[in-house]
């Protein structure tokens, strides 16, 4: 069977790095390129971690692009800083040189080019805001049919959002951060004909990063990928509530059989106190949302994939 072509667009958070680390273990997916969007990170260390991880995994043949887009509502600084720590993990710094290439063009130009050159439609795995995708479509609108689907960690359908109105005054708390970072970009994608598969907070709320799971990863740290994952999760356990947001989204590419999905009609709220809300609205834009997942099987899957 031909492999599924994938471009990963991530935004440099802990679960973004581990999403990439999961994607690159999948035998049925061929990753054409990786783009880092400067959202939940500082871009230089986030790009550096990305390339070092790809070196560690023996994937230094896949190019990386650095997106130069900007969002409207920045992620909190303290969340964005974690990539500096990861960039200094000893296991990522055995070599003095990074081999995985960083392309000279911007990440959005790189994405547009990869789509233009792809021999068949590509899955865009997006684990950050949709801003780079929107920018790539602005650069090359003709590549829209080359996007087979966008599998996106984003949104909150029937649960509250995770943008805290105390931290973000003037908001009503209905939005999820990846949408809230740049509501107009998500709105733009909502106006397209691209099939959207959403992994919203409704499902990720049921899949926490537990101490037990982090300990299990630590106990199999003779495997380099398990060591990286355990260290990454250890950094965020103090935040009191970390979930497999992006990793759960990514696992859908490798193991769709673990999930049930549901169709919804929605609108993307672009402005105002609910900016970034993904609102259910009969007659609205059709999307597919991941609805349920076999949680123990998901945990077993990532433990197994990272046992290398
Ligand atoms: O709301 C969850 C999203 O915000 C995830 O993509 C996570 O990586 C954070 O950036
Ligand atoms: Ca992310």
Could you explain the architecture of this structure?
The chain has 308 residues and is of the alpha/beta class. The chain has one domain: Inosine-uridine Nucleoside N-ribohydrolase, Chain A, CATH 3.90.245. It contains 13 helices and ten strands. 48% of the residues are buried. The model has no long low-confidence stretch (mean pLDDT 97). It binds alpha-D-ribofuranose (RIB) and calcium ion. The site of alpha-D-ribofuranose (RIB) has 14 residues, from helix 1, helix 7 and helix 12.
Number of helices: 13
- Please report the first level of CATH classification, the CATH class: Alpha Beta
Structural class: alpha/beta
Strand residues, percent: 15-25%
Question: Looking at this structure, what is the CATH superfamily?
Answer: Ribonucleoside hydrolase-like
- Rg, Å, rounded: 18 Å
Topology pattern, helix = H, strand = E: EHEHEHHEHEHEHHEHHHHEEEH
Named once each, the bound ligands are: alpha-D-ribofuranose, calcium ion
> Domains counted in the coordinates: how many?
1
Query: Describe the biggest sheet?
Result: 10 strands, mixed
Instruction: Please state the second-level CATH architecture.
Output: Alpha-Beta Complex
């Amino acid at each position: 069977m031909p492999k599924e072509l994938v471009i990963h667009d991530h935004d440099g958070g802990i679960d973004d790095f581990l999403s990439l680390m999961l994607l690159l273990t999948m035998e049925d997916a061929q990753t054409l390129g990786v783009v880092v969007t400067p959202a939940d990170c500082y871009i230089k260390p986030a790009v550096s971690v990305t390339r070092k991880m790809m070196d560690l995994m023996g994937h230094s043949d896949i190019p990386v692009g650095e997106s130069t887009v900007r969002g409207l509502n920045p992620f909190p600084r303290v969340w964005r800083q974690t990539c500096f720590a990861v960039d200094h993990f000893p296991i990522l710094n055995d070599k003095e040189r990074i081999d995985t290439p960083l392309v000279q063009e911007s990440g959005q130009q790189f994405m547009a080019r990869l789509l233009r050159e792809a021999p068949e439609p590509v899955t865009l795995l997006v684990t950050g805001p949709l801003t780079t995708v929107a920018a790539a479509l602005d650069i090359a609108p003709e590549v829209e049919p080359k996007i087979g689907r966008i599998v996106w960690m984003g949104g909150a359908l029937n649960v509250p959002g995770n943008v805290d109105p105390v931290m973000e005054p003037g908001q009503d708390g209905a939005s999820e951060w990846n949408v809230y970072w740049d509501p107009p970009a998500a709105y733009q994608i909502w106006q397209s004909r691209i099939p959207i598969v959403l992994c919203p907070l409704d499902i990720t709320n049921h899949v926490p990063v537990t101490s037990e799971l982090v300990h299990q990863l630590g106990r199999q740290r003779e495997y380099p990928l398990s060591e990286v994952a355990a260290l990454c999760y250890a950094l965020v356990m103090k935040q009191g509530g970390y979930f497999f947001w992006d990793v759960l989204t990514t696992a859908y590419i490798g193991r769709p059989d673990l999930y049930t999905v549901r169709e919804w009609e929605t609108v993307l709220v672009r402005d105002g106190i609910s900016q970034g809300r993904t609102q259910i609205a009969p007659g609205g834009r059709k999307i597919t949302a991941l609805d349920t997942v076999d949680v123990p099987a998901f945990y077993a899957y990532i433990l197994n994939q990272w046992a290398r």
